[in-house]
Amino acid sequence: MSALPYAVWLVFIFAAVIASSWLLSAYLFAVYTGRKGRLDRLFDPIDNFIYKVIRADPSKQMTGGEYFLALLGFSALAAALCFIILVAQGYLPLNPQHFPGLAWDLALHTALSFATNTDLQHYAGETTLSYFSQAAAIQFLQFASAAIGMCVAVAVFRGFSGKFSGIGNFYYDFVRSITRILLPASLVAAIVLVALGLPQSLGGYVTANTIGGGAQTLDIGPVASLVSIMQLGTNGGGYYGANSASPYQNPSPLTNWLEIGLMLLIETSMPFLFGRMVGNKREGHMLLIAAYAIYGINLVVAFVNLAPFGPGIEARLGAFSSIVWTVTATSTMTGSLNAALSAFNPVVIIAALMGMFIQAAPGGIGGGVMYLLMYVVIAVFIVGLMAGRTPEYLGAKILPNDVKRAVIAFVSHPILILIPLALAFSTGAAAVAGAGSIPNGFTKVLYEFTSAAANNGSDFLGTAGNTLFFNISTSIVVLLGRFIPMAVMLAIADSMLKRTRSSQGGGLRTDNLLFAGILVVSILILVVLTFLPFIILGPVLSLLQGYNGI
């Protein structure tokens, strides 16, 4: 297929995603602001029943600290439930392949990884997890973690806008995110995916006779339902070890482009929702333009070096769509794969790493726009100092404490990558996992911890990462990488909520293309200066050595 049809597909997908996201943002605005709608007759009884069961008062306004503790407590309970299911898998139903329970360290890693929307997998699902574990543990956490990301983003929006009486109630936001957004959207997506050839079955694996007279086991299960929330919720953890390189999970170019669109859909709607909630849609448009500008830069970088690719690029899908998928999956923090990372040349890996370093192009579900606002706080403060004016955003003064908190969130990311990276090589753990060489082994371990810290989940190691060191170290990293930025941004939002607002006429305008450009440049400068040494020691050195794969 020529480059032109690929480009047409790309333009079509982006146009469809942006148009759909704009429409979706109006629905999200109604959901999170309690606007009455026709579907309330269906959803209200369900929501009220859930509030009654969990004994939550959805009308109670929470502080930033209360909101954070509520989501942290729920995440801990959900992860504990998943851990129990995975360890006891051999004794639970819907296990036709009679898979045993997981070792405690792999079960802990899997539970924490999925509870934090990371979905870093040190196992191959089709040979490790039962149907019950895939549905009751993995899919459950994919819904829950995606909903939590959306909740935090909306709470931060309320605080930044100053137009609400509080940042909201976690249980109200969480329940409505599940029942009114994620479940219906995932149901529709799953039906479409089944129609396009993805399996959805609980009947056990099937043995089929091949043309050559041999036998082949068809590892089918509840695949479509998992893939729908995996992509919509920017989770990325697939049913199979090969993820969406598997023909069962991604059977055709049509499903390939559809799944790319699903990765982008909800996260693209969040800047639109931000504009609606702050009462200035242009503010949201500028955030979206900045996010997609960086995403576009990553795409251009990935296509700079079209050197030959190694084994692992799916012939069904081609190098072009594999590059677009990889850049999209790492820019949205989804982390799903439709080709082996080791098949790409180092330039593609640099683009993927940049997406995970930035985490806002457009970033993970809810978390991406939260990171954008973190960068906004830093950029507005710096520009304000350069112009000799008091920095303001949305009419509220940006105080030194706001900037200190934003810097804490930003700096925590390289720290969470650098410390375990150094430990992996100094203890010999990297060599045990087959990644002890320089620069390719360094790139693989760098990518592992970058993916974990960014709650992305794509990785080179795969099942080779199923060691005590990598299971425990990445478990710690995914937790801190998830909850430190959330705690910081909720604190900033809580602080800004009651702050006196003034007209923006005398300050820096943040709803125009100039500010979008300033924001993009600020983000790139901050990220490149912070992470350039890491990139040079890994993929850049591989590129200079003339190696076309990692």
Classify the helix fraction into a percent range: 55-70%
Shape by Cα distribution: globular
Strand portion, in percent?
under 5%
Helices, by number, come to 18
Distance between the termini: 26 Å
* Unreliable stretches: none
Q: From N to C, what is the helix and strand string?
A: HHHHHHHEEHHHHHHEEHHHHH
Instruction: Round the Cα radius of gyration to an integer and report it.
Output: 22 Å
Number of E strands: 4
Largest sheet: number of strands, sense, barrel closure: 2 strands, antiparallel
Whole-number average pLDDT? Answer: 93
Which structural class do you get from the secondary structure elements? mainly alpha
Strand order of the largest sheet: 1-2
Describe the protein.
The protein is mostly helical. The protein is built from 18 helices and four strands. The longest helix is centred in the C-terminal third of the chain and has 32 residues.
Secondary structure layout:
Blueprint: H1 3-33, H2 40-54, H3 64-87, H4 104-115, H5 125-128, H6 131-161, H7 170-195, E1 206-209, E2 215-218, H8 223-232, H9 253-278, H10 281-302, H11 318-331, H12 346-358, H13 367-387, E3 392-393, E4 396-397, H14 400-426, H15 429-432, H16 440-453, H17 468-497, H18 513-544
Antiparallel strand pairs: 1-2, 3-4
Helix pairs in contact: 1-9, 2-7, 3-4, 3-6, 3-17, 4-17, 6-7, 6-8, 6-9, 6-17, 7-8, 8-9, 9-10, 9-11, 10-11, 10-12, 10-18, 11-12, 12-18, 13-14, 14-16, 14-17, 16-17, 16-18
